[in-house]
Write a structure and sequence with these properties.
Helices cover 45% and strands 21% of the residues. The chain has 155 residues and is an alpha+beta fold.
């Protein structure tokens, strides 16, 4: 039997609350990482973030579940890179073409001819998802932080 001077046993509730908040924060961070990773990959398929000064050595189109709609298109470049591109980008250059552009530019030079890179539907869709996801993650983290402060301030 505990003595009268001994503190009461700790309640399991605060620990469970901390675990729940940590799990929520971890899930929020994971969701954010997935969305930002998808945005990065989708953006790379537009060629906009890439710097190029090479030739297009080979093209490969792999059909997916809906042929012509969700095909995976790969380019093998003269510098050894293999990149995925969107279908509208694939139409801009043929095998053997010289490709040049600086990272971040929306203009691709194909055999010296300037071509505007098209806006791709997948990238537009991913950009639409980023803002609501950031808002949801920020809200979840704000609630977790506020309840943590409240719990610490409570006697």
């Amino acid at each position: 039997m505990p003595s009268a001077d001994a503190p009461p046993p700790a309640s399991p509730a605060p620990r469970a609350q901390r675990t729940t908040r940590a799990a929520a924060a971890g899930l929020a961070a994971l969701a954010l990482a997935c969305v930002l990773g998808n945005l990065r990959v989708t953006s790379a398929r537009t060629l906009v973030p890439l710097a190029l000064a090479t030739t297009l050595d080979a093209k490969e189109r792999r059909t997916e579940k809906h042929p012509g709609l969700d095909d995976a298109i790969s380019w093998t470049l003269g510098d050894g890179r293999r990149i995925e591109v969107d279908a509208p980008v694939d139409e801009l250059a043929g095998r053997g073409a010289r490709l040049e552009k600086a990272a971040g530019e929306r203009t691709l030079r194909v055999d010296g001819r300037a071509v505007e890179l098209p806006v791709c539907d997948d990238e537009v869709g991913m950009r639409r998802i980023v803002a609501p996801t950031l808002l949801a993650v920020a809200s979840l983290l704000a609630v977790a932080w506020a309840t943590r402060r409240r719990d610490r301030a409570a006697p």
